[in-house]
Design a protein that fits this description.
192 residues, mainly alpha, 73% helix, 0% strand, elongated
Length: 192
């Protein structure tokens, strides 16, 4: 009972639901809601189990399935399973992100996809995904880390001019961005 008092609010808050909203949910959608709750509560293994259960429901709507797929990818990344994260989020890549005025779940999912692709050494795919996120959000200047991370992709791809351009873009937005500073130092140490 004590755990239920702690977990239930996290499940509800994580899924953005009230109790009356839960009554309207069916099978897979309820599992997905629980998955989001576990994800936001910091339990990626529980979230993965819930998202897997949700995706097994063949009657779930396409929109709910898409959200569960994104949740699965984010939870897999949080669990350190970068290959599974990239696989799950790649299934939603056509919808990640849409042209948006602000950061949203789709941008978060696309950025996580780019990081998972980088972690699995798919540097070209990672660079393309980062570029797509940067092009999709109008107010992207608030996110210098994306430029720095894209710079590291270019460093791995040996496109040094592009790497330098992205590191400098990150530093223009945040002069103390450690990822960009480390990238420029690494770039300077290379025998090009």
């Amino acid at each position: 009972l004590q755990q239920a008092r702690v977990i239930a609010p996290a499940l509800l808050a994580g899924a953005g639901l009230r109790v009356d909203g839960l009554r309207k949910k069916r099978g897979g959608e309820l599992s997905a809601a629980a998955g989001w709750g576990w994800y936001y509560a910091g339990s990626s293994s529980e979230a993965l189990a819930c998202f897997d259960a949700a995706l097994a429901d063949k009657e779930m709507s396409a929109a709910a399935r898409s959200e569960a797929q994104v949740g699965l990818g984010l939870a897999a990344y949080a669990a350190g399973d970068y290959g599974r994260a990239a696989q799950a989020l790649s299934k939603e890549a056509g919808r990640l992100p849409s042209k948006s005025a602000a950061w949203d779940l789709r941008c978060d999912a696309a950025t996580t996809l780019a990081r998972a692709q980088y972690a699995t050494k798919s540097f070209e795919a990672s660079a393309a995904t980062y570029a797509r996120v940067l092009a999709s959000v109008k107010e992207i200047d608030a996110y210098p880390a994306l430029h720095a991370e894209l710079g590291w992709c270019h460093l791995e791809l040996k496109t040094y001019g592009e790497a330098e351009k992205e590191f400098l873009a990150a530093l223009r937005l945040s002069s103390e961005n450690e990822t960009a500073i480390a990238g420029l130092k690494r770039l300077a140490s290379l025998d090009k």
